[in-house]
Design a protein that fits this description.
The protein is mainly alpha-helical. 39% of the residues lie in helices and 9% in strands. It has helices at residues 12-19, 42-52, 56-69, 81-90, and strands at 33-37, 76-78, 94-95. The chain has a three-stranded parallel beta sheet, covered by helices on one side.
Amino acid sequence: MNADVSEREISEVRTRAIFAGRLRQWGDGGKIRVVMLRYHHPLHLQFCNQVLGVFPRQIQRSWERAMFSGTAQGPIVVSTIEDLMKAVRSTPGAIGYVEEITEAEGVNHV
């Protein structure tokens, strides 16, 4: 998460809602910005299956519905883990995922 996000723990249910585009604000009212790897990236597939418990296509459809209806701005989609870290670091309210994280300035991990 971006360093400006005050939350330090996120339940599995909230994680699923965030990455499906159904939860759009942090507890303090700040806007959530989701950062994801491309839909066919191996880590994205692993994250969807193991953490979210859904197929990647389900996440993609959820975002497409929200964007089409105008209820949400789509996720920031990047090609590499390095780009994901940069986007999370530089985007207020951002959340993303990686396999492992070492201490990185501007990023909090949960």
